[in-house]
Write a structure and sequence with these properties.
Elements (H helix, E strand, L loop, with lengths): L1 E6 L5 E8 L6 H15 L4 E4 L2 E4 L5 E9 L2 E6 L9 E6 L3 E9 L5 H26 L1
Antiparallel strand pairs: 1-2, 2-8, 3-4, 4-5, 5-6, 6-7, 7-8
Length: 136
């Protein structure tokens, strides 16, 4: 697995986690596996519901997303977003599977951002491992 993180001077974040894969999967399945990885990593405390990540699947909205367009969802806001902007996307082309976030403006900064980044890394690792198991 390869993981790359970039923090821009504007305070926005880009991250990409990818791994080799020998089959292609559709975006709907990749997204489902990703949100399942988020739920499992947080021991069920964070769930995707109604186009948002929510505490226990109900409230509050941690991150709200737009509809899937070309394999990506716009990040529209939430407690973890300083402002709307950026995207999250998934792809599996038969060579690599990846989840990437581009232009995300996190609310948390400094040491607190490191905790959020670690959680994102754990979710991404679990997601990539699950996709690899499914591809066999």
């Amino acid at each position: 697995m390869e993981s790359v993180k970039v923090m821009h001077a504007s305070g926005t974040i880009d991250t990409c986690q990818c791994a080799p894969i020998t089959v292609g999967l559709d975006v709907a399945r990749l997204e489902q596996l990703y949100w399942d990885a988020a739920r499992r990593t947080t021991l069920g405390s964070v769930r995707f519901s109604g186009d948002a990540l929510r505490l226990l699947g109900v409230w509050p909205v941690l991150l709200r997303f737009g509809p899937v367009v070309d394999g990506r969802r716009a990040i529209l806001g939430g407690l973890f977003a300083r402002r709307s902007g950026g995207t999250i996307g998934w792809r599996a082309d038969g060579v690599h599977v990846a989840v990437d976030v581009a232009g995300f403006a996190p609310t948390l900064r400094g040491p607190l951002w490191r905790i959020e980044a670690l959680l994102h890394d754990l979710v991404g690792r679990r997601f990539l491992a699950r996709v690899a198991r499914e591809a066999v």
